[in-house]
Write a structure and sequence with these properties.
The chain contains 13 helices and twelve strands. α2 packs parallel to α3, α5 runs parallel beside α6 and α6 packs across α7. It is an alpha/beta fold and 391 residues long. The longest helix is centred in the C-terminal third of the chain and has 21 residues. Helices cover 42% and strands 13% of the residues. The strands form three sheets. It has an eight-stranded parallel beta barrel with strand order 1-2-3-4-7-8-9-12, surrounded by five helices. A two-stranded antiparallel ribbon has the order 5-6. α2 links the parallel β2 and β3. One of its GO terms (biological process) is alkanesulfonate catabolic process. It comes from Colletotrichum spaethianum. One of its GO terms (molecular function) is alkanesulfonate monooxygenase activity.
Amino acid sequence: MSAQPHPLNTESDRLLFAYWVPNVSGGLIISKIPQKTNWDLASNIKYAKAAEEAGIEYGLTQIRFTSGYGAANQHESVSFSQAILQATDSIKIIAAILPGPWNPTTVAKQIASIDHYSNGRIAVNIVSGWFKGEFTAIGEWWLEHAERYRRSNEFIRCLKGIWTAPEDTGFTFGGDFYRYRNYVLNPKPVQKPHPEIFQGGNSDDARNNGAEVSDWYFMNGNDLDGFRAQIEDVKTRAVKVGRENEVRFAVNGFVIVRETEEEAVRVLQEIQGKADKEAVNAFRDSVQQAGASTSNKKGMWADSKFDDLVQYNDGFKTKLIGTKEQVAERLVLLKSLGVHLVLTAFLHYDEEIEQFGRDVLPLVRQYEKEGRGKNVNFEIERTGDVYRKKQ
């Protein structure tokens, strides 16, 4: 029997929320600021239960095979996701998967099994990889950018095919990276047609994957024009392959809610002021080299400055920093742009997941009941200046 929906989550067109699971050390920032955030399983079960209580519907585990950039320790994503699911009732956990170290057969089997254990609460995020040192350290080929995303495209096609293939014929596929002949997986996943598949990026290759094969397209933080352009571009690509109604959009945002905007901004300034400069610079070099290799020179961090990169996925740019009212207003603006899910992260997980559920989420739902988040021109006029590029 499925868990009853959270009282804040009864409307089908509501904005959805997820949180980054801190299953790696160092939290979600590359900073030496003290944090009330831990990466062990017991703490993460507490965070997941707090998220359920708050009305947050997804958690996203991270995958790293080697240490780097402030994250010295890392728990593996799939097993960690399963452990959280066993201790919770309703939240969905999205497990990060890296093609190369994983192949579709193993992932399809693991996720189908966990889908049964959790009564349909597992999803996957297919990450194509940006950290060359990680691949070479474990003996994996480091493919060029376009090839990494082409491999991910095949990977997703294989997952979907394995999970949905009919019993009498099984799954057959002849690709450049993966091949199958009449493969039948049993048991199939509980979720139909299959567990949700997320993927993200900013390059043409990533946008094509979002349009062609994934259920969800993750975006880094951005300014107002950047969000609009990216969403419209992926939608246009999806129309060309007949998937205009099949791809949804999720955006990353780091949340700092305080009594006043000034207090929230001071916290941001302290995080950035205490940045681990060596780690941030190393991270910047690695990701911007990866971005420069894309055909349009627009990898996920192509335009990111030092202060942006203190939060791994440009979460400060999303501007969820201020009073509870300001943050709620900005969330309904994002919804009006076509964002379906906001992926949150916090400085103090011990306290701030609960705070977000107590102070911000009820306001978002109140605004939605008032009809907010549907008229993009109204929301931009009301809130949009905070996202515009500074001249």
